[in-house]
Write a structure and sequence with these properties.
Layout lengths: L1 H24 L15 E4 L2 E4 L4 E7 L2 E6 L5 H10 L6 E3 L4 E4 L5 H38 L7 H34 L2
Antiparallel strand pairs: 1-2, 3-4, 4-6, 5-6
Length: 187
């Protein structure tokens, strides 16, 4: 029964790590990446629709993203959606394809992005620690329950295992941050 607690904790920690990975894909690194456009919604016949569901998107080189809508009518809507979003890019349109040129990042802007990445990583670490705390509280409650028949040794062993899992996930978060930092700071 207590090992289920550990499994649930690891599942939640994995979700926190995956959320961080997803958030990191939306950060600008000075290179063109389709992840930058994730979350942009286009008004498609009155319905907010993800950009990748109304157009083909490609990265022909490291400084350009091309967007080719399936219907030429929605070219303007896609441009509006990109301008409204916080990606900070200005679309150029030739009547068939939208081109987004990725300007090189200034040193100051790179440092701001790294600072934001560190904040996202810290939020993920806090989430992992909160999961550990909740599981440990749950383990303590169950150990005090007379019907559960859980020994102090089992309780201590499980808490140690949860701590080891926590340490592993925090190390993964730190590695992810380190990799993203290098990617952002590379000119």
């Amino acid at each position: 029964m207590l090992s289920e607690q550990k499994k649930k904790a690891e599942d939640k920690m994995t979700k926190a790590l995956e959320t961080l990975r997803k958030e990191f894909t939306t950060l600008r690194t000075g290179r063109a990446s389709l992840g930058m456009l994730e979350g942009i919604m286009v008004d498609y016949y009155g319905t907010p629709t993800p950009l990748n569901q109304v157009a083909n998107m490609a990265v022909p080189d490291s400084k350009t993203i091309t967007i080719q809508p399936w219907e030429a009518k929605i070219l303007g809507e896609i441009e509006k959606a990109i301008l409204k979003s916080d990606v900070g890019l200005t679309p150029g349109n030739d009547g068939k394809i939208i081109r987004l040129s990725i300007p090189p990042l200034t040193e100051e802007r790179r440092q701001q992005i790294v600072k934001h990445a560190k904040k996202l990583a810290e939020d993920a670490r806090v989430a992992v620690r909160n999961i550990r705390r909740d599981v440990n509280d749950d383990i303590k409650k169950k150990s005090k329950d007379k019907d559960a028949h859980v020994s102090e040794d089992e309780t201590k062993k499980l808490q140690d295992e949860v701590q080891k899992s926590t340490d592993i996930f925090i190390k993964k978060i730190d590695e992810l941050l380190s990799h993203k930092e290098k990617e952002i700071m590379t000119v």
